């Protein structure tokens, strides 16, 4: 994943695509920050799963900012945030649709043998292990809660 980001950064530099270049530099800096944090924990560098979590967080932050800008009538800034989301999302796995997420929740409930809301942690752990970066876990949590509650 790290190499993909670096290749995309070089391509954006060659193409002189300023928006893409600045976004990819931001992504690269976030990955390096994550590597530094990993070294503090005694690891060599961040794993792909940790990078994926960082990218997912970046997308979520930008989507929230886009909404705030749109609500405030700052369309040019909202469009900039949307472009950044699109660029960062290129490095994330395909997101599950609502139907696919529901099926995954049903499978996780069956796999963990969950029978009540007390088992929600087990189910969410199962989902996070299998579908990291592929679903919105806030949405998944609400679905799990509805099915178990």
From TrEMBL:
GO terms for molecular function: carbon-nitrogen ligase activity, with glutamine as amido-N-donor. It comes from the Bacteria. Gene3D superfamilies: 1.10.10.410, Uncharacterised protein YqeY/AIM41 PF09424, N-terminal domain (1.10.1510.10). Pfam families: YqeY. InterPro entries: Asn/Gln_tRNA_amidoTrase-B-like (IPR003789), GatB_Yqey_C_2 (IPR023168), YqeY/Aim41 (IPR019004), YqeY/Aim41_N (IPR042184). This is Yqey-like protein. The lineage of its organism: Bacteria, Pseudomonadati, Pseudomonadota, Alphaproteobacteria, Hyphomicrobiales.
């Amino acid at each position: 994943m790290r190499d993909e980001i670096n290749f995309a950064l070089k391509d954006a530099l060659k193409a002189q695509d300023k928006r893409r270049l600045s976004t990819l530099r931001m992504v690269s800096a976030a990955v390096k920050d994550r590597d530094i944090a990993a070294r503090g924990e005694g690891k060599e560098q961040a794993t792909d799963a940790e990078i994926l979590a960082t990218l997912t967080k970046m997308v979520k932050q930008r989507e929230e900012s886009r909404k705030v800008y749109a609500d405030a009538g700052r369309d040019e800034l909202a469009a900039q945030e949307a472009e950044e989301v699109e660029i960062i999302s290129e490095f994330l796995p395909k997101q599950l649709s609502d139907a696919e997420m529901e099926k995954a929740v049903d499978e996780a409930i069956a796999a963990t043998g969950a029978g009540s809301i007390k088992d929600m942690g087990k189910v969410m752990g199962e989902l996070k292990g299998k579908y990291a970066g592929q679903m919105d876990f806030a949405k998944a949590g609400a679905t799990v809660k509805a099915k178990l509650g």
